[in-house]
Design brief:
By secondary structure, the chain is an alpha+beta fold. The chain has a single domain, classed as Double Stranded RNA Binding Domain. Helices cover 28% and strands 25% of the residues.
Amino acid sequence: MTTKTREKTEPKVTILKFSVLIIVDKDPPGYHSYAPSLKGLHMGGKTEKEARDSAKEAAVLYLKSLLKHGDHIPIDVMDQSPEDEKTTGKKHSSLRIEEIQVKL
């Protein structure tokens, strides 16, 4: 009797690219970061880097959740140029998330 062995295949991974503006403001005694396009995404940190990294991680999870549940992705997340001091009136640093991985 012959048995067929099925080869295990890795799940297909599709890379979706998004740009998300993350603003980091000084908020004594630390920093406050948020993504204007992702409603409710507000993070904090003792340092600017910690606040930015926390917001980046939260934005990736936020976008993965939207995709998983079939919710709409905000249009400005798909193609947005970063805001600057002229448009917001605030000094801030920004970070763009270039890609997230979603397993299909």
